[in-house]
Write a structure and sequence with these properties.
The protein is an all-alpha fold. It has 6 helices and no strands. Helix 1 packs across helix 3, helix 3 packs antiparallel against helix 5 and helix 4 packs antiparallel against helix 5. The longest helix is centred in the N-terminal third of the chain and has 24 residues.
Length: about 170
Amino acid sequence: MNKHLQSVREFREHFGFSREEGRLSDMTIVLRQAWLMEGGKQVFLAIKQGDMTVILARLTGLAYLALNAVAMQGAEVNLQPVSWQHDGSVLSLMRLIGDRINVCSSGLSEDYSALYCACAQLSGGFLNADFDKSFGLFHRHQMETGTGRGQGTEDRSEVEWNRLPDLSDCLYE
């Protein structure tokens, strides 16, 4: 099993997040899509800002959201190659992330896996960062600052974009 997925399962169990075996309901897909779109927006704003540490934190957060959808379905990560080459334009990043988020509207675990793989690839290939280390630090932050599910929290995302960890130690010099 993918160790990042195992971490997300630990998070979901610890905070009482629900699990839907198999296909997600239409309303769950709509809600998850809204969260992914917000995550994509956060990544795009970080790219515009130009702070590599913030970009890494938000890419890792987006990957965390994608894996939450995989874990929610009781599925496994389907590792997929990412065909992306840095062409000197940030628009290629925007297209890759936007396209991967859009495809997740299918609600299929393999599409969420593709988004996770894209985030991992961009972290290493574009940012020159240690994605495994950033994911581990992000997960630890989530376990320390996360909120359990209960009355009135069902529509809140697993990632709080205004409280992200400092992942500067994960960037290679």
